[in-house]
Design a protein that fits this description.
single chain, 475 residues, alpha/beta, 11-stranded mixed beta sheet, 3-stranded mixed beta sheet, 14 helices, binds zinc ion
Length: 475
Amino acid sequence: MKPRQLAAAIAFGLTVCAAPAAELTRIPADALATAAQLRERAANDTAAYDFVAGLTTEVGQRLAGGANDQRGRDWVAARFKALGFDKVWTEPVTYPRWVRRAEHADIAAPFAQPLAVSALGNSPGTPKGGVRGEVVLFKDFKALQAASEASVKGRIVYIAYHMHAERDGHDYGPATAGRTGGPALAAKLGALAFVLRSAGSDSDRLPHTGVTAFPPKAPQVPAAALSNPDADLLERMIAGGKPVMLHLDLDCGIDGTFTGANVIGQVTGSEHPDEIIDIGGHLDSWDPGTGAIDDGAGVAIAAGAAHLISTLPQRPKRSIRVVAFANEEAGMIGGKAYAAAHKDEIAKHILGAESDFGAGRVWRLTSKVKPEALGAIDQIMQALGPLGVERGANGTAHGGDFGALGEAGMALLDLNQDGTRYFDWHHTANDTLDKIDAKDLNQNVAAYAVFAYLAAQAEGDFGSAPVATPPKKTE
Ligand SMILES: [Zn+2]
């Protein structure tokens, strides 16, 4: 550095030091006018619906590490290019490959009946021919945590937690506590196998799969979910007082590792191309359905919003990046890989939001931004007002797959969707395109286009604020 530059740098430094401590982030009036146009145009745009219709029709289910993992990525990369994004690339993500081959369960006694069952992700298989044992019922995961080894050993553990539908989906946490931690605990207590009432709010005879987890080198048991009507059937027999004998036969398990990728498309900024507004969804899905609401819709919403912004006469000041994450379902593995790959550029990741709660309308916006950016969030709220979005608390946004970057300091928004029916369908064979209402999907596109564009045009950044609650696990 030459002396004159040094002097200038010192002067600049002094200016910064002498300035008021908090520069307020503001959004210019012309940006708000453009955002209003984007919001109106989103209502009749077809890019997002065409995206999720195409993905679910031409690829279908996208189980991480399965035959459609690569096909799904190729499809999305090609569609990002067709949508006119300036840059499309992939970043590798490696994960264990879990394979589902066959699954069967039936009650052997006191009244023989077949059951609709789905193995949980990461579950090992049973020995050939299956396992047979007496069922021991626990009303929830807490009850299993309080159980003695003697009550469980040699039996098949069943958790009967009954999940209820709520707009914000808050009953999913208690429902998945048993799914995530129940099998490992049952194994530790000497159980033969583990089944649970589906973590879902429907009465269809379709089980909800989902991930479970075993600590490294800990004992494992085969684990599966029963559909809710089958759970009712099992519970009626248990209530009858006679021992209930279950036969569970699962052919599934971990088969090595697999390298997939996050697929990324970018509308590159005109003034600050290296500063990023991150939006996205996860590309993987469970295998019984076609991954329409979980989470083809989320990738489609983000892609539709970025596409809409790309059709403006001028590129936004900052870049809008759409990330289609790999393997969220087994524990946000793609999100963690994205954070690891970009942690050194954290100051350039201005704001992030993932859509991963189906295709219902956005009804609330929560945030995790610095206090100096709250005025800009108020401006974004004004632009979202006509969409019927209300303001939630600051400090409570989780960011989904962007949560790992959020923990490293990136500011986050959560655009909370109406999830009243989401848990009727997710992780089941009923996760199909017909569950998506094109108008509701476009309300999401409008909300993402509005906030992403305004954040890209904002003068100042969104910093970060402490997370008030620990990151929520949504899968
Ligand atoms: Zn999801």
